[in-house]
Each structure stands twice: as structure tokens, then as C-alpha cells.
Amino acid sequence: MDNEKLCSRRQALGSIGAGLAALAVTQAFAAPETGKETFVSAGLEDPRNKYPKPPFKEQLQPWPGLAGKMDPVPDHGEKSYKGSGRLAGRKALITGGDSGMGRAAAIAYAREGADVAINYLPAEEPDAQEVVALIKAAGRKAVAIPGDLREEAFCKKLVEEAVRQLGGLDILVNNAARQQTKASIMDISSEEFDATMKTNIYAPFWTIKAALPHLKPGSSIIATSSVQAYAPSGELYDYAQTKAATTNYVKSLAEQLAPKGIRVNGVAPGPIWTPLQVSGGATMEKLKKFGGDTPLERPGQPAELAGIYVQLAANDGSYATGQIYGASGGHGQP
Ligand code: NAD
Ligand code: MG
């Protein structure tokens, strides 16, 4: 076989780390005489034209929106993510697991061998059912727990139910969020401000408190922050400050929980093609050009972040705590 088509396990894993092998048709061959594994090269994928670029069609969905109704439909790794047992036997709860980054994480976790519970709003049942089917197709247990995270009682119930149905919990991904674009602070009512704070700040607080008694050493808490924590947009006054708070709680809690052997990390996406953006998260003007102002000149797809959520939960990421891993097409991270 052509030497260029073969690469070592180390090289193959390196390219997975770079997020480029996620779509690969990598095949493993065992060489019994050496015990070494070799792989057919994944080939290079040009990040500039791997996914759709603006201009995008005008589209507006009622909040919270459905991935299945977006044009183009986002890529969450449904056809591409390949696992290698990195999370075998783990038990994960992902909020906002029906769509976007949460769905990408759910698919990847299941294909890495984890049982997965997802939370979402009742209006998102069609998206959630697709995720449940994908988790089951990976041979893992899927638990669907719809409900509104703005209620403290529900957050407690969510964790209890996930622990009961999964038989424990060792990965908690606080990923759900509310983002509604408003040109002026004057346009944000106290009720709307409160809804953003409840979803993005209170819900992780309530959920983590409920989960903590169940998390053993080696467990991971992962938050979805945002490029907005570092480079806030004028029209996201309320949302952006919740993402700064998210980045901050990751670092505080990592300090607090390290002595218990629990890691806390965050993911900071840039502009990613998800329902949040087409259901009030962005102005129509911004949506049509979405991601076009990044150096890669396109938005990211949820699938492009799946590997980060895996890495932050996996045993081999054990020295990472209090970290924020970004993926933003080249702009706006520290
Ligand atoms: P998304 O719409 O697919 O996911 C957000 C999810 O939040 C929804 O699916 C919904 O289930 C959940 N949610 C919202 N309010 C809720 C409530 N009250 N109760 C229960 N669930 C609720 O969009 P996404 O972009 O994948 O968002 C996931 C995370 O990524 C969010 O934290 C968001 O802030 C973050 N993020 C997104 C972008 C982007 O450009 N899309 C950029 C940076 C950060
Ligand atoms: Mg959704």
C-alpha cells in the first residue's frame, strides 16, 4: 500500500484533534506481526469550502426553532462522526441536546460509547426524537426529558430523572441558552432580561447543584460559553453578559471542584449555523451574511465542535480544567 496513504495512529489522532478527521472514511488495519495499527489517510479537507457560505436565504422560525426546518439543514455529524470508545460506559446529560451544539455532542457521545439523556423544550420534540433515534442507532441508551430550565424545580427533577434512568451521571453539559437580538437596551423588557438570565445563568447553577452529589472523581462538567464573552455584540446586551458569566463560572468552579476530582471546562463557539440564530437570535441582515465576516468566511457547523465536547469529557483530557476551548472561524477569541 502507498506509504502516503498510511499514517500512524498518532498522526491519525492528531488530525482528529484538529477536527479534520471527523468526516473521514478512516479505516483501521491491524498488523498482527507488529501489533501496530495503521490507517488509510483521511485526506485533507479545506476548512474554507467544507460547508455552506453566505449569502443564506431569509428565514425566521418561531422560538426556539427546529434544526430540521433550517435551510440549509445544519450538520451535527449525523453521517460523519465516528467514535472510538473514548467515552465507553459514561453517562451524560446534555441540556439543549435536541439541536445545535447539544445534538452534535449527543451524537458524538453516543458513538463514543456513552448513554445520553437530553433535555429540550416540548416544542422541540421533532428534533429531540431524531436525536433519540441516533443515540439508539449507536447502540446506547437514550433518555428524553423535555421541560423548561427556567424553573428551579424542573432543573432538580431533570437531574434526578437523568440519574435514575441512566443509572448514574458523570458528564453534565450545560448547553441550553436563550439569545434574542435587540437593537437597543430600551427594547429589552424586564421579563425578557429575566428569561435570558434564568436560562443562561440560573439553570446551570440549579442543574450543577442537583448533579454534584452524584458526580464521582473523573466526572466532567462542560458549559457552552461563546465568543460573545470576549467580543460582545451591541445587539446582544443581555445574552453577551451571560456568556461572560459562563466563562467566569467555569473558572471559579474548576478551582472549587478540582479537589473533588471533577473537571469543569467550557466551549466557546463563534457563529454556528443553529436554530438559535433563525428564531430571533440574529437580525435578518446578519443572518443572510452569517459567518461571512470571519477569516474562514462562513459559519461553523455544530459537527465541527463535537470533538471538543468529547475531548473535554474524556479521561485523556484529564489535565484540562478551568479551560475554555474555542472554535470561531478565526475571530474574536482571547
Ligand atoms: P440551539 O437552538 O440548537 O440550542 C439551544 C437550545 O437551548 C435549544 O435547542 C433549546 O432546547 C434550549 N433551551 C433554550 N431555552 C430553554 C429553556 N427555557 N428550557 C429548556 N431548554 C431551553 O442553538 P445552539 O446555537 O446550538 O446553542 C447551544 C449553545 O451554543 C448555547 O449555549 C448558545 O449560547 C451557544 N452558542 C451558540 C452560538 C451560535 O452561533 N449558534 C455561538 C456561541 C455560543
Ligand atoms: Mg433546539
Overall domain count: 2
Q: What percentage of the residues does DSSP assign to strands (E)?
A: 5-15%
Shape: globular
Q: Name the CATH homologous superfamily of the largest domain.
A: NAD(P)-binding Rossmann-like Domain
Structural class: alpha/beta
Family: Belongs to the short-chain dehydrogenases/reductases (SDR) family.
Region (Disordered): 40-65
Pfam families: adh_short_C2
GO molecular function: oxidoreductase activity, acting on CH-OH group of donors
What can be said about this structure in brief?
With 334 residues, the chain is an alpha/beta fold. It has 2 domains: 1-44, no CATH class; 67-327, NAD(P)-binding Rossmann-like Domain (Rossmann fold). It has helices at residues 9-17, 100-111, 125-137, 152-166, 190-211, 237-257, 275-281, 284-288, 303-313; strands at 6-8, 28-31, 36-40, 91-95, 115-120, 142-146, 171-174, 220-224, 263-269, 324-327.
Would you kindly provide a written description of the structure presented here, covering whatever features stand out?
By secondary structure, the chain is of the alpha/beta class. It has two domains: 1-44, no CATH class; 67-327, Rossmann fold (3-Layer(aba) Sandwich), CATH 3.40.50. It contains nine helices and ten strands. The chain is globular, with a radius of gyration of 19 Å. The structure holds nicotinamide-adenine-dinucleotide and magnesium ion (MG). Residues 64-65, 95-96, 98-102, 119-121, 124, 148-150, 175-179, 199, 224, 226-227, 269, 271-272, 274-277 line the site of nicotinamide-adenine-dinucleotide. Keywords: Oxidoreductase, Signal.
